[in-house]
Design a protein that fits this description.
The protein has five helices and six strands; from the N terminus they run αααββααββββ. It has 167 residues and is an alpha+beta fold. The strands form two sheets. It has a four-stranded antiparallel sheet. A two-stranded antiparallel ribbon has the order 1-2. The radius of gyration is 34 Å and the shape is elongated. The termini are far apart.
Length: 167
């Protein structure tokens, strides 16, 4: 080892002394990389859990059924010259008629018998249900399809929310 305070130390000697007295050792490097890798693995382990609230466990058929029922209602019950303006008389006779069973509604919209169905017409503020038919909504995972329509019911001005739930 070359002493730094020697008078005859040349520049090469100073470089050799600096390389031998380096600050980072192999243990420092291994410890730093280990801590980084543990932190990185921890973040990767938590990543799937971060997306869980946004994932749906419903199959595509349930979601498609809700969309299909909503689309059929809007297209079949709309007034010819005004899309999204539903004919209240036809709607009351076919969908919101208490004498019709849930099985009749399911067969009308082509849904399997084991599918739950709920059709609700509510005010835009969501506070009041104007009409509802089908099964009561359960705590199961539910596919929801919503359309803004004008149905001609009192309390439905300027429009109402047509909510179809399937499960």
């Amino acid at each position: 080892m070359i002493r730094r305070d020697s008078k005859d130390a040349n520049e090469k000697g100073w470089r050799e002394a600096d390389q031998q007295d380096r600050a980072q050792t192999m243990q420092d490097f291994v410890l730093g990389i280990s801590i980084f890798m543990i932190g990185f693995m921890f973040v990767l382990a938590l990543f799937p859990g971060l997306l869980t609230p946004f994932e749906s466990s419903l199959d595509g058929n349930t979601e498609a059924a809700a969309d299909r029922v909503t689309e059929e209602m809007v297209s079949n019950f709309s007034k010819p010259a005004e899309p999204n303006v539903l004919n209240a008389t036809r709607l009351n006779q076919t969908v919101f008629n208490d004498s019709r069973s849930v099985a009749d509604l399911k067969s009308q919209f082509g849904l399997p018998s084991d599918t739950g169905l709920n059709i609700t017409l509510q005010r835009l503020d969501g506070m009041a249900h104007l009409n509802a038919s089908g099964n009561p909504v359960t705590n199961d995972r539910t596919a929801i399809s919503v359309r803004i329509v004008d149905a001609g019911f009192s309390g439905c001005d300027p429009g109402c929310r047509l909510v179809v739930r399937t499960w």
